[in-house]
Amino acid sequence: MARIVLSRLVQLGFTLLGVFIVLFVITRMSGDPVALLIGPSASTEQIAQLRSAMGFDRPLWAQFTGELLGAMRLDFGVSLRGGQDALTLALGHLAVSLQLVVGALVFAVALAVPVGVVAAVWPRSLLARLLMSVAFIGQAVPIFFSAPLLILLFAVAWHVLPTSGWGTWAHMILPVVALGMVLMAKVARVMRAQMLEVLSQDYIRTARSKGLDGWSIVTVHALRNAMVPTVTVIGADLGQLIGSAVLTESIFAVPGLGHMLLTAALARDYPLLQAGIFLTAVFVVSLNLVVDMLCAMLDPRIRAAGARG
Amino acid sequence: MLHRRDLVAAAAAVPLVAAPWAASRAQSPAVLRVALGSMVAAMEPNARTSGPPSTIVYYPIFDTLVATDAQGSPVPALATAWRNAAPDIWELDLRADVRFSNGERFDAASAKWTLDRVLNPENRQVVRARIATIKSVEVTGPLALRIVTTLPDPILPRRLASVFMLPPTYFQRVGEQEFANRPIGTGPFEVTAFQPSASVTLRAVEGSWRGRPQVPQIMLRSIPDASTRVAALRAGEVHIAESIPPDLARQLGQGGTRVVASTIGQTNLIILNTRNPALADRRVRQALNHAVDKEAIVQQLLSGYGEVTGQLVATNGVGHDPAIRPYAYDPALARQLLQAAGVRNLSVKIHTTQGLQLMDREVTEAVAGYLSAVGVTATIEVLETAAYVDAYHGGRMDPAFFIGWWYFPAMDGDFVFVWNESSRPQSRIRNPEFDRLYAASTSEMDSEKRAGLLRQMGRLLHEEAAGIFLYHPQQTFGVRAEVSGFTPRPDRVINFDTIAVSR
Amino acid sequence: MRREPAVLAALLLLGAFVVAAFGADWIAPADPLAISLRARLRPPAWMEGGEWRFLLGTDHLGRDLASRILHGMRISLVVGIAAATLSALLGGALGLLAGYLGRGVDSFVMRIADVQLAFPLLVLAIAVIGIVGASLPAIVLVLGLWGWAGFARVVRAEVMVQRELDYVQAALVGGATPLRVMVRHILPNVTSSMIVLWTFAVAQAVVVEGALSFVGLGVRPPAPSLGGIMNDGRQVLGNAWWVMVMPGLAIVALVVALNLLGDALRDHLDPRRVQD
Asked: What's the gap in Å between the CA of B482 and the closest CA on chain C?
């Protein structure tokens, strides 16, 4: 067990290095932040001066090693636009993003799990297809449509919820619902697939043939067994979800990591971008580690294959 | 570096079960709530950002030496008078009995300190570009400054409208980082809470030379999405929302909301690269101007929030020539001119941003449509802001691009004419006569003569059709009925001193 | 599958979609690019103020919405299919290698997948498009690059299971090279789940292209895409709802149909296979 964790930590190191290299290359290739910072009224000499003062005229290898060494000390520098410590800033935004994404997942699971279960118990029925369709609609409607509609309805017309912002339970509701609706499709699909898998297994069929009540089989045995892989699969996507929540964050003015990364990328705010992506990478890899360990514990086939290969 | 207290602070971002939202909404009406498109990341005003909407946040807290009134003229702020003692020397008298909100005195020494700080290249102050003509600043009395410029600079006082005065003693005591979170200025408001890039709360203070404002508290927050901003206004969550796109503005005007609009010191146009062989003939460029129905663009696409124009400077700036009429919409004439110039199959790609200016992309699409209607193959290319700015400073984006050139807060045409001076890489025109006029204008100390030179430059650019002139944009604010005393300024700043909120 | 009305309906819808999209040049009533500012934001024909010339109304530049939607369907489908195919090819190949060869190769591929997962789509899009410029191939590249990890993960898991099965052992004993085993024996067995994933990926790509339009990185205007038209209509949602709702209905129909089809395919091909 300890060996697995250790080897995963080493892998985390490689991943972070890979992330760092990719980030450095693409940011340096797509323009520098100086002209953006200084605004259009500056002359070329002034831009050159500012670039020099910020160290962007050093040779690339010098910039790279400097930033890499800094990253290894967890020092990503300060945000080019505001001067605050990049990592602290990113951490604060990550906290907000996590609340949003976890909330959305809970919402999606609450609504989509029943749908997936029903669709699995009566797999080819019209009801099942219709229910799944409803879940799919959530994914099909772009969030920049559903979110403003929710705002118009609940905030402007009915005045029961705030339009935007973050800080109280009330502020969380609309963004969580909007994002959750998008996730419903995937949750329903995974739940259905896992339930089908479990329901077709021998021990379930044995229990059925022994005359156990259909519903208790579903609720007691199958659901419990299907939930864990479902949750692990969905949880593994959590990292990507943080980035995918960017539109939700923009529309609802939620100060999350997705929106922060977007504005940092648009403004070429390298330190902040690096700190944010670094955090996302750590998060994704750690989550994968947890998910893989859980999967290995649960699925004997993979465990066996892992032992051999 | 990461400190433990920073981790605690990060964790504290978790929302606890704070005061129920509904209760906070029924707050005292004495708080003026404002929604902006973005919020500054740090509170030191001259350092990292320039231009709106950041200046909306700084103006309640800080002052400049020279300010701008609603008509675009320079007015005294922390400087009460200024004279041109010699072509390269300006003398300023500073206002007496001004104190920062912490009691520190404002005087010539502190003004010099602020200007020196901005001018020092090591401090990487973004605003430095605006006052780069200053060579040195000398204190000639407790409230007197002498500014020496490298070359004669006729508009130095106007340039000073961009630099906010800081308190040196306090700044040096707390340091740059701390000041960026807890700033002190000479304005009638001070900061009580600040969430970088999210929100800031201001409170009125006693003893400011600007007097006591009507609202005791202001809360400004960032709502990046325009439709959400409008929704917040309609729902009563904010009293003022800035930068309302024209189509969304139609939703206002009933139910206790209204639109307040005014022309700002800016011109939006399509720059044409006169050095591109396809556009080298003036008749071709004039044809393109005649091909576009600018009135329709302003009335239909911008819902009337704009002024059709044929020049770079509006009535609110120095260099405006009332005799310059916009090019008339005349597609037949456009075709004639194209034919006379012997042009067949003209192909024009217009580059533009999306969202940097209101309706930038939509206006460009409309222009492309009009050009297509007279036989020009017009395509558009949308660039991300960073790529666009890069290409702009590099002299790329051939043969045409949409741009919004602004000249506030100085409200002087120099800031837009400069881009056409042929030594600049951003210039798409090489006109020796224009260069001559421009050089003369930068050293002409007589303001009347100088204004005449600027008008001449404007006429030249108009006749040369250096671009497809479009319109002077208007800023649009959504305002609730409870708000009174709101007068917009041509530099896109909100003057909170006169605003009152009733119940 | 033929006995399921819902799936049949989905198939018919998709068929109609494809026909309408690729026949847009002939079916569309007007030029999707023809601008007329005075005709902007006209409502659909059956509403007051509408005209039959503009069946579904006009957008903010006076362009016929029905024509734009038809052409947009084509572009969205092309982008979606191309991006999903790219993801499938890339992810499938890497997943096959990782699952079969195991150890170092597996570790390497999974690390690359982790690196890619750390980059949000929009950041990736800004980077790629910032370098190569905005164009249809660039968008396909971005969407394809973003989605390969999902394919890789599924294929890898399946291959790791298949690798232990008897037929593979038999082939190896019979003298087949690893490459031959991977391509001739294992690959056909994972193809079915890849096809299922592919239908979901097409649906997702169509929707996500709209997200790219949100930041100005979508299909280059004035060429329409379903997501792009919806994005254009954001600011007129209050007074010209049809600009968003009409393409929205098209997207919903397409995505729901694709998802239903994917589920049905999975049921048909192997109801017991573990999917993602």
From this structure: 24
